[in-house]
Design goal:
This protein is mainly α. It has one domain: Hypothetical protein af1432. The chain is built from 14 helices and no strands. Helix 3 crosses helix 5. It is globular. 40% of the residues are buried.
């Protein structure tokens, strides 16, 4: 049977994505505002290592690149994987971090020039949502688990990285997508696997990569205490519930398993939302 023309184009698009994933360097835009603010902030004199790490944490692609470089043989002779941005910036040193920040930012700005306005707006909205999920993840980790809040925050920021990548590539295939619904159908179908492949390319730790790939799987189970997948899944559900534009509202009488693990109810959810907004304000303030 002959494949319909529209499906042929979609197949070609997916083939193009997977071919790009084999490249050594994957740098693509997420938030133009965050990129510009980080470039300005990195030029500050006498910036502390802690502030430097917090600034970098606002940009998922840059965060992953910093961690990847810090775990390379040249900077990590022990071979023990580091997942903390503060440790990574100390290991690399200010000048190396600054140079990489500028290089990644320039590449992202170049990519942004190729985006049409509609795609750029979608990506900026996606970054805002990722920041909220990141803040929820940090609060959940600190309140209910023994997991690193910093790792949870990074996992939350990276949880939709596949969507950023697909949207960026979609700008080169505008004729393929006749509506936003057609585009989002493809994004929803592919972003988890694409995101996991991107993080594997970046040598991001297994726990974060697994969380990106599994957080949307309602049948996901594991033994033992909380893992990052539990945290990201719960954070994603909570963010959708509290987002005024979302249709994914929770029924607190029948909450998903991802939330029952945390023994959450409506009152606790509201408390977490207050903590999340404070965490988000702190997160955003470092690049304001």
């Amino acid at each position: 049977m002959e494949i319909p023309a529209d499906h042929k184009k979609e197949f070609e698009f997916i083939q193009g994505l997977t071919a790009d994933l084999s490249e050594q360097v994957l740098i693509f835009p997420t938030s133009l505002n965050a990129t510009m603010k980080i470039r300005r902030a990195i030029t500050q004199d006498n910036i502390s290592n802690d502030m430097l790490a917090r600034i970098i944490s606002a940009e998922p692609v840059l965060s992953a690149q910093i961690l990847k470089l810090s775990n390379s043989a040249a900077f990590n002779p022990t071979g023990k994987t580091n997942t903390e941005l503060r440790t990574a910036t100390m290991r690399l040193g200010f000048m190396k971090v600054k140079n990489l920040t500028i290089a990644v930012g320039m590449k992202q700005l170049t990519e942004h020039k190729d985006l049409n306005k509609d795609i750029s707006v979608l990506m900026e909205g996606l970054w805002n949502r990722s920041a909220r999920v990141s803040a929820f993840s940090s609060v959940l980790a600190k309140t209910y688990t023994k997991l690193s809040a910093e790792n949870a925050m990074l996992a939350g920021l990276l949880h939709d990285v596949g969507k950023f990548y697909i949207l960026n590539r979609a700008s080169h295939y505008q004729a393929l997508f006749t509506s936003q619904r057609a585009l989002w159908n493809l994004v929803d179908a592919w972003h988890s696997n694409i995101g996991a492949a991107i993080l594997e390319n970046w040598a991001v730790s297994d726990d974060i990569r697994n969380a990106v790939q599994n957080f949307g799987n309602r049948e996901y189970t594991h033994r033992g205490s909380f893992d990052l997948t539990d945290v990201i899944f719960a954070a994603d559900l909570l963010d959708a519930h509290f987002d005024e534009r979302s249709k994914r509202k929770l029924n607190w009488d029948e909450v998903p398993i991802a939330l029952t693990k945390f023994d959450l109810d409506e009152e606790k959810g509201e408390q977490l939302h207050v903590l999340m907004k404070a965490e988000l304000d702190t997160f955003l303030s470092v690049v304001s």
